[in-house]
Every structure is written in structure tokens, then in C-alpha cells.
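FORM 12-B: Structure-to-Sequence Request
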């Protein structure tokens, strides 16, 4: 069976796949893996439960056949803590039909890996960085890692010829005063910075709507200092709203998953490190593919299952949240399991 386009219950196609390669991380960002919960007693996935590189490559191949996807994003946890991750990139770069392989990383280990990742076939990295202030950054990442280490990663990625974007999660009272310094810094370097509204992912980050700085407020704060104007999306379903600085061609983005939801164009599937297909960032769980893969099922059987899962999808959590803020009470998968 060859299917080239899939649609869910709300008519949304499946365009890209985000693959979490590990649920482990060398950071403990409070909005994602708070240290009090993800402590030394926390049970991470046993090695045998995690998909092998061969399994991930097979699934990617089958997603191309099932839905014609062209983009893969490797994430985690922290993808660069997965041993021999470069080998996976090399394997994925042989998947016919995939035109773009990106990675989301905290950047702390990137200086070591950037060149090899590029050579293996990685195209782009999105590096998470929440402020420029060293002391504050050490606190936010919960592991005392300094900003210099991330900047070394950024430079190495640029030198290696990888596309680079920066993501900053904005939390009121934590790093909202860093919005302007970050915008100014990256405007000068020409790297696209994207502000992300603090989201109520998982159940452990103590999310509160009052801590969210809205897209509108981020826009207004930047616009007051450095006038910006909206520009057209690069493609349908792009999650960041794009803006350009009026005095240059450099741009920034704002990802407004809380105050201006974009579920109607959401075309992403997520694969957890243990092989669950997750159809929404805020889902309670995923649909297991690992057992099927390990049961000796044929490619056709796996494709059929993927099509069935996507065909039954009707998630629109962020739109529903706008109507019902009690939504935060429900049990949700943790961000570190599916990687954003
Ligand atoms: N460890 C990698 C990193 O930090 O880039 C990849 C995984 S991380 C879960 C993926 C992205 O999700 C990061 O950009 C991170 O900042 C973002 N993220 C995590 N928790 C979030 C939250 N509660 N709200 C908004 N973004 C969040
Ligand atoms: Fe780790 Fe990324 Fe989560 Fe921070 S956001 S704890 S770096 S997985
Ligand atoms: Fe997609 Fe779910 Fe986010 Fe809506 S809430 S944009 S459906 S991941």
C-alpha cells in the first residue's frame, strides 16, 4: 500500500515528524524537567525500551511512504546526550524523500559535535537559549552551565555551515527582562531568534497563565525599542509568526501556542524515544509503534497503523484551552518525552 497524503479528522495533513531520541537531559530547566522531580531517583527509560537507530530509520522511511513527509526534527530530552547520535543522522540522511533534517538542542554539547553532524547530513539546528546573563542562565538550566558554552556551540554550528535559529522560552519574572537584550544581540548577528510563550506542557512545571508573556506583549515590548512589522509565513502551518526589523532585513519570530493557538494548521507528528506516536504536544500519551515494529510486522502493516492513528486524530488542545483554562488539570505527556 502506498499512500502519499494523509488527513486527520479535521482535514490536516501530516507533514513533519519530530523524533525524540532520548528522554534524558544534561539540563534541568524548571519549565521542562524541574530538578525536584527529575532527580536521582527518577526512572528514565531503560535502554531496551528506547528505539534503536535502525528502528528510527525504518519508521522515518515508512512515514515518507505513508504521508510523503519531507522534514525530520531530532529532539529529546537532549539529543546530543544520545550515544553516537551522528550515526543516526547519517542513516536518516539516506531516507529517500527526506529533504530537511533539523535538530533542537540546548547547545551545551554542540561545539564537540557540530562538524560531524553537518558532515553526516544534518541541515539545521535550533538552539535553546533563555537569556544572555550568565548567572541567570546557570540558574535556569539547573546545572550551572554558563552561556559561553552555548555560544561556543552556536559558533561551531555556524562554522560547520549548519542553519542556526535560537529559541527563548519567556517566563514572567524569570527572564522577561531579557527579551530586549536577546532581540538586540541576535538582530546584530543576523541569527533568527524566536520567543516561545511559556506552555502548560506536562504536569510538573507548575505552569500558571499569569507567568505567560503573550505574543502581543512581546511584540509591543520589542516594537517600542526596535520597530518591527509582521511578514508572511514561509509556508502554511509555520508555527512562528514572523516579524522583520524595519531598519534591516533581519527577522524574529514569536511562537504563541498559548494566546493565539495554531491547531487548525498543525501538521506535526511526534515519536517518543520509546516508540509512541503522539498526535499532540498536550496528549495524555501516545500510540505504541514499538511493539508492532518488534513483532515482525510488515512495512505495509506499520504504514496501515500510522494511517489509522493519523486518520483518527482530532486534537486541538491549545484552541480548547483558550475556551477552558481548567484544561491544565488533565494528565499530559512530559515535554522531555516528546521534545517540543
Ligand atoms: N533539549 C533540547 C532543547 O532544550 O532545545 C530539545 C528538547 S526541548 C523539550 C525542546 C524545546 O521545548 C526547547 O526549545 C525548550 O525551550 C522548549 N520547551 C520546553 N518546555 C517548555 C515549556 N514549558 N514551554 C515552552 N517551551 C518549552
Ligand atoms: Fe533539557 Fe531541553 Fe528540557 Fe531544558 S528544555 S530540560 S535542555 S530537554
Ligand atoms: Fe498541534 Fe496539539 Fe499544539 Fe494544537 S495543541 S498546535 S494540535 S500540538
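FORM 12-B RESPONSE
SEQUENCE OUT:
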Amino acid at each position: 500500500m502506498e499512500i502519499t497524503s494523509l488527513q486527520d479528522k479535521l482535514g490536516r495533513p501530516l507533514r513533519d515528524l519530530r523524533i525524540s531520541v532520548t528522554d534524558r537531559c544534561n539540563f534541568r530547566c524548571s519549565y521542562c524537567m524541574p530538578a525536584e522531580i527529575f532527580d536521582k531517583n527518577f526512572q528514565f527509560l531503560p535502554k531496551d525500551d528506547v528505539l534503536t537507530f535502525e528502528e528510527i530509520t525504518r519508521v522515518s522511511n515508512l512515514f515518507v511512504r505513508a504521508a510523503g513527509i519531507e522534514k525530520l526534527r531530532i529532539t529529546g530530552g537532549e539529543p546530543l546526550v544520545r550515544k553516537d547520535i551522528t550515526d543516526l543522522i547519517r542513516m536518516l540522511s539516506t531516507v529517500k524523500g527526506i529533504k530537511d533534517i533539523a535538530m533542537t538542542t540546548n547547545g551545551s554539547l554542540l561545539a564537540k559535535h557540530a562538524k560531524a553532524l553537518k558532515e553526516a547530513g544534518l541541515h539545521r539546528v535550533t538552539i535553546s537559549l533563555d537569556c544572555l546573563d550568565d548567572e541567570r542562565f546557570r540558574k535556569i538550566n539547573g546545572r550551572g552551565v554558563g552561556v559561553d558554552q552555548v555560544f561556543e556551540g552556536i559558533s561551531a554550528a555556524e562554522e560547520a555551515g549548519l542553519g542556526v535559529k535560537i529559541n527563548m522560552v519567556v517566563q514572567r519574572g524569570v527572564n522577561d527582562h531579557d527579551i530586549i537584550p536577546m532581540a538586540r544581540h541576535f538582530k546584530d548577528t543576523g541569527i533568527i531568534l524566536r520567543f516561545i510563550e511559556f506552555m502548560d506542557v506536562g504536569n510538573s512545571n507548575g505552569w500558571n497563565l499569569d507567568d505567560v508573556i503573550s505574543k502581543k506583549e512581546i511584540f509591543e515590548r520589542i516594537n517600542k525599542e526596535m520597530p518591527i512589522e509582521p511578514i508572511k509565513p514561509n509556508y502554511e502551518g509555520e508555527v512562528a509568526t514572523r516579524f522583520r526589523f524595519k531598519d534591516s532585513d533581519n527577522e524574529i519570530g514569536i511562537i504563541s501556542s498559548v494566546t493565539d493557538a495554531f491547531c487548525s494548521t498543525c501538521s506535526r507528528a511526534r515519536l517518543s524515544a520509546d516508540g509512541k506516536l503522539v498526535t499532540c504536544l498536550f496528549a495524555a500519551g501516545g500510540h505504541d509503534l514499538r511493539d508492532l515494529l518488534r513483532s515482525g510486522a510488515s512495512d505495509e502493516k506499520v504504514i496501515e497503523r500510522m494511517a489509522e492513528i493519523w486518520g483518527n486524530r482530532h486534537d486541538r488542545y491549545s484552541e480548547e484551552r483558550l475556551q477552558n483554562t481548567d484544561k491544565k488539570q488533565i494528565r499530559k505527556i512530559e515535554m522531555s518525552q516528546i521534545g517540543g
